[in-house]
Amino acid sequence: MRVSLAHNLRLTAGGHTGGVQVLLLEDEPRLGRAVEGALKAQGYGVRWAKGLEEARDAFLELEPDLMVLDVRLPEDPDGGFRFAQEVRQAGYKGPILFLTARDTLEDRVFGLDLGGDDYLVKPFHLEELLARVRALFRRQAEATGARLRLGDLEADLAGRAVYHRGRRVDLYLK
Length: 174
Known about the structure:
Blueprint: H1 5-12, E1 21-25, H2 29-41, E2 45-49, H3 52-62, E3 66-69, H4 79-89, E4 96-100, H5 105-114, E5 118-121, H6 126-144, E6 147-150, E7 153-156, E8 161-164, E9 167-169
Parallel strand pairs: 1-2, 1-3, 3-4, 4-5
Antiparallel strand pairs: 6-7, 7-8, 8-9
């Protein structure tokens, strides 16, 4: 008997340690390697799943900060959409970027209404994909009021302010 993603998500909740983790669902080997390499070159940890079952397992193990999902998979032409729906129903709050050749207006609207945060049509440039990933994380940080800390420095991303030992630091353009 298969236990639901929602049940497993509750069992594994608690977060991961380490850097930003991306779950990539892409069945095409050449594109998967290119996207994986580009994301890793930017410092992201990447788990590349080539099918739905592998993606489900990776989701439970990884607890990703971002998911990049191909929609059309060999085992299911709507597989990426179905997987996104499953993880949203399980309580996943992170950003989802659909990466697909399905370019109709109906598909794009459906993907975004389903819970996707962005939709990039193939073919695309890796630079655009990386810019969209950065934008998704920036919007997420602003929405949650995230603060980054490094030693005595703290950056309030939503408030666009920097603090040193609790005191605001005024930054100026030169």
